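S1.2 Input.
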Amino acid sequence: MSSSDLVSEIRSGFFPIICDEYADISNTEQLTICVRWVDKELEAHEDFLGFYNVPEIGAETVVSAIKDVLLKLQLSLVKCRRQCYDGASNMMGHKTGVAKRIQDLQPQAYPSHCHGH
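S1.3 Output.
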């Protein structure tokens, strides 16, 4: 499936976002973004959207990067129904973390802790 076909499939339904931020070996901050979605045959998929360089890992910067990636792929945050992050305060902080900021934009995007962490 081509990347444009993949994005068209994701656009046709709801999706959760899965993000993690880290510093690579050269100490460059990066953000990994994946989405989960279900196709018309009710098969679940999890697809990697990419690594994105970010100048720092503050919540505001991470939210801007997520919004930018979704905009470039023409995926609407309106269709986001879950969020999954590690337990870092910048990601899951209940007052100003990424999860709170995304949920302020899309109340149905409920955050959850990544069980892989």
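S1.4 Remarks. DSSP finds four helices and five strands in the chain.
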